[in-house]
Amino acid sequence: MHMQPRCFSDHLGLNEGYALVLALLAALSLVGCDQPASDAPPASAAHAAPAVETITVQPEPVTITESLSGRTTPYLIAEVRPQVGGIIQARQFQEGALVEAGDVLYRIDARLYEADFASAKAALAQAQATLELTRLTAERYEDLLGSKSVSQQEHDDADAAYRQAQAAVAVAEAALQRARINLDYTQVTAPISGRIGRSSVTAGALVTTNQSEALAVVQQLDPIYVDLSQSSASLLRARKRFMHDLPPDDIGVDVHLTLEDGTAYDPIGRLELAEVTVSQDTGSVALRAVFPNPDGILLPGMFVRATIDLGRLDEAVMVPAQALSRDNQGNPQVMVLGDDDRVVQRPLGQVELIGKRWLVHDGLRLGERVIVSGLQHIRPGMVVRAQGEPAPQPIGPATAALVGE
What we know:
Strand 11 and strand 12 form a beta hairpin. The protein is elongated and about 135 Å long. It folds into three domains: about 100 residues, conserved putative lor/sdh protein from methanococcus maripaludis s2 fold (Beta Barrel), CATH 2.40.420; about 100 residues, Efflux pump adaptor protein, beta barrel domain (Elongation Factor Tu (Ef-tu), domain 3); about 120 residues, Helix hairpin bin (Helix Hairpins). Helix 4 runs antiparallel to helix 5. The protein is α+β, with helices and mostly antiparallel strands and about 400 residues long.
């Protein structure tokens, strides 16, 4: 019997045919994915290492300074007050002028004190005359006592009268000296040399002995003091680092001054005093520097900024402020680039912020590369590309300013 061949579609169902076709198309697509396209980027370009900038750790000389705020105060100051009472007859100075110690500033009506002086002088003359009379009597009685012409009692009375006359003369001399002093006090003189301020009284005013209100104030302004305040921790660091070889009576630190308008004051001052007591309220120590003031530029009460030279480090390790970060415990750290260009997280020891850079006391070795930019795109162990590292500059002296605490 002759049999007709069956069609493929007759042998398989319609759905089964569709499934076979889809399977073949999926296989072809997988084979096509395994073949790289000619225009696809290489894998190394798609995952390029992030670029960072570094600096090479090398020692450099740094002069450490600290900036502190302060105010000027007079080197000497004296309030002029009358030592005797009376009416002011004249003021004999120009307000704001320079005066010398001993210059007459005021004249007080001296007539009563002249009369007291004359009376005391007369009393002294009277006492001296009495002394002479009793001396002669005592000497005569001394001669008569040997011949029994006077009794012992009469001799003793004459000797006692003589001694009383001596004491009376001493009292009269003291009274005369006091009267002379009071008479001299009617001329009120400058106790120190300096610049005198305004007068609180005029001619005709009544003044009293040692009154509370000063007639005027004299201030010596050359040299002049600058009073500063420094934290006790900063002072301890400075003493340990630079001042341990100095004698206790010589702090030995130069001070530079900046005025309120931002201009530098040319004469260099000297740190003269560091208080031995720390303020319990502020935790700071009072410092005092002395400055020459020949032109009178510095006036009492001026606000100034003082820069103290704390010393010099010949081999300091400095890193930019942006290179340093801190871990969860607040410990300082930097990212260092290893020999294989892998990022290494390096914990640091003691660091100190000086201006816009960190002074690193320990934790870095010379020649290491510290990452200073691109830190937000890297993590420890990652391979990076160092680029844009500044060319090494010749080492020269630098000046760094400590941030005031």
